[in-house]
Amino acid sequence: MSVVIALAGNPNAGKTTLFNELTGARQQVGNYPGVTVEKKQGICVSEAGTFEIIDLPGTYSLTAYSLEEVVARDYLVNEKPDMVVNIVDASNLERNLYLSVQFMEMGIPVCLALNMMDVAQKRGIEIDVDRLSELLGIPVVPMVARTGKGKKELLAQVAKGIDKPASPLFISYGQDIDKALDEMEEIIEENHFLTDIYPARWVGLKYFENDTQILELGATRDQETADKLMDIGEKLQRHMSATLDVHPEGMIADQRYGFINSVLKQNVIRFAYDRNRLQ
Ligand code: GDP
Ligand code: K
Ligand code: MG
Question: GO molecular function of the protein, one example (predicted)?
């Protein structure tokens, strides 16, 4: 059985460039089943091993707001690739990591390809790659996909990371949401509610995010448990709207960015000034 690597990232992070760099002429283009979203696959033959590479649709998030997001998510949970290589734009790290933390919350093994290092450097953005890797608990490889720089190291890290199970990233969403999530998690675990597919806490989060796909799937599987979760979700929604004038959905996005910023602030990123201009 071949090792399957899914390439994922925000639009314009350099996914196609890296895909071409890895697979060369060994490419095949089709569609994801049932939809008109393009699916590219290819084979990467390297010193580190032979990998099957799947190009996932470019997305900013993993909710169910767009067809691309649903396709990417379905692929990840149904096909279970051995690893996600998440290509991020190093010159726009905060924004790009929003998707990365969502892979990590799903418990999917991720390797971060920190692309556009040339652009970041030109803009005076310095990134402590080792520190970022340590704080996120995943491999991080600096790259310039356009020139192929970092490709060898990326493949070495991918080979090293295969078969290493990832535990889902835990982000605190604040007292109100965390408490409701704990309550949901217990019900979800007790009833084995979608836990064959997703981590329990992630399922709970989707009820707060009003994720139509998960809500429908859950109701089809086990209406009684789904109703219980809906009740908890609605109760929290009412409480938060009344006391904080926010929706859980907005709070979840805010806290994800909060988590990302707390990582970046720990000496991961530095914006160097152009000294010549100051003189
Ligand atoms: P995708 O939308 O993620 O598939 O991104 P593309 O691979 O199409 O890349 C978007 C643009 O960024 C293209 O013009 C690429 O040539 C360029 N690009 C990709 N990687 C790099 C890089 O490391 N450095 C620089 N400067 N440009 C890059
Ligand atoms: K593009
Ligand atoms: Mg592309």
Answer: ferrous iron transmembrane transporter activity
Determine if residue 38 is labeled as part of a ligand binding site. yes
Specify the residue for token string 């010193």: 47
Distance from residue 170's CA to the centre of ligand 2 (Å):
32
Atom 21 (ligand 1) nearest CA = 146
pLDDT tens by residue, 190-217: 999 999 999 999 999 999 888 888 999 9
Q: What is the DSSP string of 242-256?
A: HHTS--HHHHHHHHH
- Return d(Cα 29, Cα 41) in angstroms, integer: 6
Residue type, 88: V
Cβ of 15 below 6 Å from ligand 1: yes
Task: State the closest ligand 1 atom to the C-alpha of 12, by its place in the atom list counted from 1.
Answer: 2
Q: Flag whether 122 is marked binding.
A: no
230 known ligand binder: no
Q: Give 95-107 pLDDT, tens digit per residue.
A: 999 999 999 999 9
pTM reported for the whole predicted model? 0.91
